[in-house]
Specification:
By secondary structure, this protein is α+β, with helices and mostly antiparallel strands. It has ten helices and six strands. It has two domains: 113 residues, Winged helix-like DNA-binding domain superfamily/Winged helix DNA-binding domain (Arc Repressor Mutant, subunit A, Orthogonal Bundle); 109 residues, Winged helix-like DNA-binding domain superfamily/Winged helix DNA-binding domain (Arc Repressor Mutant, subunit A, Orthogonal Bundle), CATH 1.10.10.
Length: 234
């Protein structure tokens, strides 16, 4: 294909994934999927009740039409079989088509959330406005984001020793950041993996010792998306 005939990336984005989201009602339906992503599936009955609960009156016919549009662009997917609603109590025998937020839909929604965040909310306070609590929050945000970017630059993972060296943190401080923090994300941003045991590590384990090089910090998919969002703000 000739270079001039290639479709611009923005056209691909807005004519593809984002096309149905030009509609306010499509966005409302899409948000219901995102807000209920912890469920394995949703039914049209779930969608109808969720939309009504939020004060939106959308007919079944329109809901079904937007479901097809969202599916065609890959933001949601239709599952095989039928099932019962999961968001609200349901005692009838009737079953419904099953729908699920796709991986592409999840990634897009998370990235959009970062893009539309109010910038004023993240403005750094002046020195005179600082408090010990705010300093602690800023420090926590700094090291968490630094870990994300170092892991991202390292191809997705780094040994415990290498990460501690680059952060210039002692063992105790790094251990604090090894635990998931729901204040930054509802899913873990990175995880610690242990290399397969060797004779040496088995012996050390008997004495309660851990070899740092056997521990690896690894980005999760959520962490990768977050790191790319941070880099995208530069």
């Amino acid at each position: 294909m000739d270079k001039d005939e290639r479709k611009p990336e923005l056209d691909i984005l807005f004519d593809g994934l984002l096309r149905p989201l030009h509609s306010k009602n499509a966005r409302r339906i899409f948000d219901v999927f995102y807000d209920n992503r912890h469920h394995e599936h949703l039914t049209t009955h779930d969608l109808e009740n969720s939309l009504e609960e939020r004060g939106f009156s959308i007919s079944k016919k329109e809901i079904n039409a937007w479901l097809v549009s969202l599916q065609e662009t890959g933001l949601i997917q239709k599952l095989e079989g039928r099932g019962k609603p999961v968001v609200f109590e349901y005692s009838d025998r009737y079953t419904f088509d099953l729908w699920q937020l796709s991986e592409a839909g999840l990634n897009l929604r998370q990235r959009l959330r970062y893009l539309v965040e109010v910038k004023e909310a993240s403005t750094l306070p002046k020195l005179g406005e600082l408090s010990p609590e705010k300093i602690s929050d800023i420090e926590d945000l700094y090291f968490t984001s630094k870990i994300l970017l170092l892991l991202y630059d390292g191809g997705g993972s780094l040994s415990y020793t290498e990460l501690r060296k680059r952060l210039a943190l002692d063992r105790e401080r790094l251990a604090v950041y090894s635990w998931p923090d729901i204040s930054h994300s509802d899913k873990p941003l990175f995880e610690i993996r242990v290399k397969p045991p060797t004779l040496k590590t088995r012996v050390f384990k008997l004495f309660g010792w851990v070899i740092e090089d056997d521990l690896t910090f690894t980005l999760t998919e959520t962490g990768r998306v977050m790191a790319e969002a941070i880099l995208g703000n530069s």
